[in-house]
Amino acid sequence: MKIRIRKLLWPDTCPFCGKVNQKGVCLACAEKLEGLLVREPRCLKCGKPVRYKEQEYCYDCAHSCHDYDRGAALWLHREPVSTSVYRFKYHNQRFYAQAYAAQIAAQYGALIRKWNPQVIIPVPLHKRRRRKRGYNQAELLAEEAGRILKIPVAKGLVERVRYTVPQKKLDSKKRRQNLKRVFVVRASSIRLRSVLIMDDIYTTGATIDSLARVLKAAGVQKVYFLTISIGQGY
Ligand SMILES: [Zn+2]
Ligand SMILES: [Zn+2]
Q1: Which pTM does this prediction carry?
Q2: What are the contacts of 52-59 at 24+ separation with CB within 8 A?
Q3: Are the C-beta atoms of residues 160 and 178 closer than 8 Å to each other?
Q4: Which ligand neighbours the alpha carbon of 65 most closely?
Q5: Which residues is 194 bridged to in the sheet?
Q6: Domain residues for 81?
Q7: Quick one: which of 47, 23, 10, 16 has its CA closest to 196?
Q8: 114-143, pLDDT tens digit by residue?
Q9: Whether 138 contacts 158, CB under 8 Å
């Protein structure tokens, strides 16, 4: 019912340029998105594009350790993806989750099935921030992807217990410090073999690492991630 009301009041718009378009993503944006898809060769750890086929890891992953096992992102974090994700996150454009999840399933369905996660875990927001924003964008994405891929979403499993300053204001080292003891697993023991973390953007991996750390300490064996976009950096 909600959806029908929305459709009556507002025409459908392209989640990338914001122009009215009945079929969701417009042709011009679809073409640009095709060029932004993260393709091979990719970093074997974070999934970022690398320059040469022989290169196993990106610069970041070759020089640091991650707590997660492996991950992938759909698009490079450039226009029109960056503006779209920004509106999805801060301007209540919740329905963008459908377009992102459909693309994630089309592009990475086979890989996700190979990883075989028992649940999808959206990166939780602190309840104060969630109340202010009204929703958790990672959760919307996880729910849409879970529906398409038929994987349950574990929402209350991990809680963000510390209110932190936004990561984008910090450098890489400060990001890691900012995320210490931020997440807590809300179960005494979880016997999960494999989980998939979902978030909007992968930048340095500090958030995913922090979450992966508590999940592994709680007994999860394999932690994978998928994000809508990823920064580039060889
Ligand atoms: Zn468009
Ligand atoms: Zn990497």
Answers
A1: 0.91
A2: 58/233, 58/234, 59/233, 59/234
A3: no
A4: 2
A5: 222
A6: 39-230
A7: 47
A8: 999 999 999 999 999 999 999 999 999 999
A9: no
216, exposed or middle or buried, with CB in 10 Å at 0-12, 13-18, 19+?
middle
**In-domain check, residue 74:** yes
DSSP classification of residue 167: G
171 CA from centroid of ligand 2 (Å)? 17
- Alpha carbon of 162 to ligand 1 centroid (Å): 37
d(CA 125, ligand 2 centre) in Å: 25
Residues with CB under 5 A from ligand 1 (ion): 14, 16-17, 26, 29
Helix (H) or strand (E) holding 148, with range, is helix 137-149
Q: The domain spanning residue 90 has which CATH number?
A: 3.40.50
d(CA 131, CA 66): 31
CB 179 within 8 A of CB 208: no
| Residue 117 domain-assigned (yes or no) | yes
State how many domains the chain has: 1
> pLDDT tens digit string along 25-41?
999 999 999 999 999 99
